[in-house]
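yo

u said u wanted the structure for the complex thing, so here. seqs first:
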Amino acid sequence: MSVNGKKEMIRVENLEKAFGNLEVLKGITTSFYEGETVCIIGASGGGKSTFLRCLNLLEVPTGGKVIFEGTELTDPKCDIAKYRQRIGMVFQHFNVFPNMTCLQNITLAPTLEKKIPVPEANAKAEELLARVGLLDKKDEYPNKLSGGQKQRLAIVRALAMDPDVMLFDEPTSALDPEMVKEVLEVIKSLAASGMTTLIVTHEMGFAREVADRVIFFDEGIICEEGAPEQVLSNPQNERTRQFLSKVL
Amino acid sequence: MLDQIIKILSKYGYVYWNGFVGTLWISAVTVFFATIVGTLIAIARMSKLKIVNAILNVYIEVLRGTPILLQLYFFWIFLPKYMPFELSDLQCIIVALIVKASSYVAEIIRAGIQAVDIGQTEAALSLGLSKKNMMTKVILPQAIRNILPALGNEFITMIKQASLASTFFVAELTTSFRTVQSITFMAIPAIMIAGTIYLALTFTLSRLVGVFERRLQVYER
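structre next:
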């Protein structure tokens, strides 16, 4: 299926997630298309992060379907590890591997799971590190890196698997203010390169700048979605207006 | 006192030597197998199968909640009776020590694994790593840093617990002391010698663990 000639990468059908009695997602239906950059905004506890984590099944949905490039990931028979290789994810707290050097962080998954020869994986890792200005750190352990550097490392670690989609879960929320920009620049250039990118973020200015589409989550449902100028400047939904009046 | 010790050592040194070798052998075998069995139990306990979990919980509770001497008696009586093959006293005792120690090791390892940030698991999974690779390449290497100090203590405990084998006159260091004492009637010097050897053993081991710990400190969180 495609819209405007764009391939549908992820389709979400009536997605539900509950933790015990707490319903976090109450039936989400939407699609993400190739090359699209989507920013997901909303108040804390609204289900944005849970939604993102359901897309690669880090959280197992309690209802509904996630369909990635035509394969239903929520099918219990699905070999999820194989598809996770094609869905990169970046976390709020970086989650770089402290027991490996920067280079090893990047080459671990490609060499183990895609059986890419070590020299080739190393060359690609160095290329990626150079792209985010970390080549001189390749043999350092992550404890020597700043928050912004760790996050850039986490981004290229995910990119080393050649994913079709990148998920960013509040990538700048744990950063000192002066490091936010360097990480956003990397994400921006990635989005500009045509990568399908989903970003849960509180950076409204950034969302306005890079997003093709903004989705506003509240209390487990999509309240409003559309072009950034529409959702952020001229919201139709009362709850979107309330939220934006508090953060802008 | 000192001349008594020297006298005992010159005459019965070989008894202590045999005991020392016995203790070293028993504790090395116990440490080796208890670590393997304990690790397997720790990993199995993280399984989602409730029945596996329940069985292992009982295993650990029973072994931690009953005296070790009683367990040694149990295996010493039970195994020869119900096993289809011949077992020496030493083998029965070693099995008992391994089983006992494995329950403690399992708890130490489980705690060490659980202390690794959940974000590490998520990052590894999100990259598409298999569960096995996630465990062996990402989680366990980090967990070892949490585990090693406690495991070192447990190894030292294993050496000391091997002394309980003397109840069954299995050849080890405390049995050596009992032998020498009953021949010479010089109890205090005989104890001092055995104690010194134990101390040398455990001290060496704790230094060794310390070296390993520092090796693993190449990175800090």
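Residues 76 and 91 of chain B are 9 Å apart (CA to CA). The interface with chain A takes residues 117, 119-120, 122-131, 133, 137-138, 141-142, 218-221 of chain B (CB under 8 Å).
cya
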